[in-house]
Amino acid sequence: MPPLRLLAGLLLPLLAAALPAPAAARQSAAAPQRFVLPAVSASAREHAAYFPRLLRLALDKTVATDGPYELAYYGNELTSLRRNIELKNNGVINVMWDGANRQREAELLPVRISLIKELNDYRVFLIRSEDAARFAAVRTLDELRKLKAGAGANWPSADVLRFNGLPVETSGGYEYLFPMLRVKRFDYMPRGAQEAWAEMELHQGEGLQVESTIFLHYRVPFYFFVSRSRPELAARIERGLRMAQKDGSFERLFNSIPAFQRGMAEIAARKRRVFELRLP
Hints:
By secondary structure, the protein is of the alpha/beta class. It is built from 15 helices and 12 strands. The strands form 4 sheets. Strands 5, 8, 9, 10 and 12 form a 5-stranded mixed β-sheet that branches. Strands 3-11-4 form a 3-stranded antiparallel β-sheet. The radius of gyration is 24 Å and the shape is globular. Mean pLDDT is 89; it is low at 1-28.
């Protein structure tokens, strides 16, 4: 009969093979978790590039617990409505960033961590430079209601503007709004305080400018969204964002974006008339 030490030496490898692998080993052997993002529009490139960077920061924080990941972009630009549909139906993307409203939060799964602080709550206007004096003379919401806004057909802001009696002309495509403003299909394009100056720079020489006297104010939090059938993606993103908030890397990334610095400075200056809008 073999000695007990020899039997133990023979049995231990067999027992180890029969037991489940440790979590870390299973994760390293698993395929990377794949996140597919919408393409970033040319006119949004400067400020919107922040969101993939923030997502990567969050996912990097969770590699030890959730395993490897891959980030990819869908190759074709999608309208806001199409992004919603694709995400809801587990189509060509599985994560996006956007403003929240009741319908979007019902159809999709939001990660309820505000991505851009209060920047999206304050709206400035892109206008035609020739109309600057016309807007500087606006003192009330009733006076603003005589002018027409331009917005994306599926933007939460379009619903807010209509609810407050502000006429709106919509477009299915974000990039179409700039030529529509130039040819006077509408009079102004409300933009988040993080968006307008970067967009103006990209459309230099087109007779547009950022209006200098008015803020619209209403709360539209900006979140990451995933499909309601993919809660594991939302859970991982939320864990990573909270870790980034705790160690300060979220704040450092936010403060590194020039467009965000300009928007926060404009809010802090308190030099504009603020028109408060009610939410639907």
